[in-house]
């Protein structure tokens, strides 16, 4: 028990140091170089409020999704749902590709095993992956103006494959269960067959809503910092940005660099304000991951076994 307490404090210190370091290093140029006077006070307040509200909506959607996933196994109240989301983000920032989010959600469960909880959370992540992949794949085709018929066929086939694999995830896991290396892990996935077509489509719906929320946040931040880009080009560039982030490994100090580089490449194709694009990317990280991760430390350290 004492060792676990030490571990919790080590994780807490690590999360705080990481968030503070990223904030200090990425925001050292300040806001003085941006002309906010082009916006009326009403427009400025409206933009900021909408960005903050969308950040809150993003957390609410994730809590709704987690409650829905856990309902067949361990019905949880809203407080537990939100604490699980915040705890997941706390562990996400200090793990490769934010896989700690899965463990963080499972950490708050009481009767369900942590391993099963992690596997249940994986289904929610799979739904989000499908949304970003399918939309991003066709956005990439539009961005690079690829006219080859075979490339469109490949994109379509891959998108269908990802979608079908998501719908048949339980059957795919059963197939993996015949291999010795996966036998023990298979038991943790038992029960996922409860989620049929209707349930998985609902998870996709929630994931699509969340996707629209953080893409919308990003676009409003670009508007706030004066990036001159039409909404259609901005959305296409953002879809491509998130698509690339699915496949680029990120860990700790690399995550914001990866986010910034991807955003700068795709959005920079249409606009030239590099500092504004990077700042929008970093502030989005602070709002949706950094600050919630700090809040999650409260729930992470409060929970006792």
Question: What does this entry look like structurally?
Answer:
The chain has about 300 residues and is an all-alpha fold. The protein is built from twelve helices and no strands. The protein has one domain. It is globular, with a radius of gyration of 20 Å. The termini are close together.
Notable characteristics:
single chain, 305 residues, mainly alpha, 12 helices, 75% helix, 0% strand, globular
Count, helices: 12
Query: Overall pLDDT, averaged?
Result: 81
Number of domains: 1
Q: Uncertain spans, ≥5 residues at pLDDT below 50?
A: none
Largest sheet: none
Helix percentage range: over 70%
H-E order:
HHHHHHHHHHHH
Number of strands: 0
What is the gyration radius calculated from CA atoms? 20 Å
Shape: globular
First and last CA, distance: 9 Å
- The secondary structure category is mainly alpha
Strand content: under 5%
Outline:
By secondary structure, the chain is an all-alpha fold. It has helices spanning 2-26, 41-70, 78-92, 100-107, 114-143, 149-167, 169-176, 183-189, 197-224, 231-245, 253-267, 274-302.
């Amino acid at each position: 028990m004492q060792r676990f307490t030490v571990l919790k404090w080590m994780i807490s210190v690590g999360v705080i140091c990481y968030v503070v370091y990223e904030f200090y290093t990425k925001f050292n140029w300040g806001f003085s170089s941006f002309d906010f006077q082009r916006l009326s006070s009403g427009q400025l307040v409206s933009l900021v409020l909408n960005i903050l509200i969308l950040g809150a909506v993003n957390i609410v959607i994730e809590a709704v999704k987690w409650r829905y996933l856990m309902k067949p196994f361990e019905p949880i109240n809203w407080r537990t749902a939100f604490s699980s989301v915040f705890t997941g983000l706390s562990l996400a920032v200090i793990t490769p590709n934010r896989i700690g989010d899965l463990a963080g959600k499972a950490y708050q469960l009481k009767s369900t095993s942590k391993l099963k909880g992690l596997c249940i959370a994986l289904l929610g992540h799979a739904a989000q992956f499908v949304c970003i992949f399918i939309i991003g794949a066709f956005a990439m085709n539009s961005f690079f103006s690829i006219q080859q018929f075979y490339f469109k066929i490949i994109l379509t086939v891959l998108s269908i494959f990802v979608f079908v694999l998501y719908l048949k995830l339980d059957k795919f896991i059963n197939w993996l269960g015949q291999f010795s290396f996966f036998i023990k892990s298979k038991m943790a996935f038992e029960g996922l067959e409860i989620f049929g077509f209707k349930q998985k489509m609902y998870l996709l719906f929630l994931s699509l809503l969340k996707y629209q929320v953080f893409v919308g946040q990003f676009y409003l931040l670009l508007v706030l910092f004066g990036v001159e880009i039409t909404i259609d080009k901005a959305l296409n560039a953002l879809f491509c940005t998130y698509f690339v982030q699915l496949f680029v490994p990120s860990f700790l100090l690399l995550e914001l660099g990866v986010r910034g580089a991807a955003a700068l490449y795709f959005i920079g194709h249409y606009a030239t304000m590099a500092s504004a694009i990077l700042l929008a990317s970093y502030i989005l990280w602070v709002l949706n991951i950094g600050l919630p991760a700090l809040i999650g430390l409260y729930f992470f350290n409060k929970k006792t076994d």
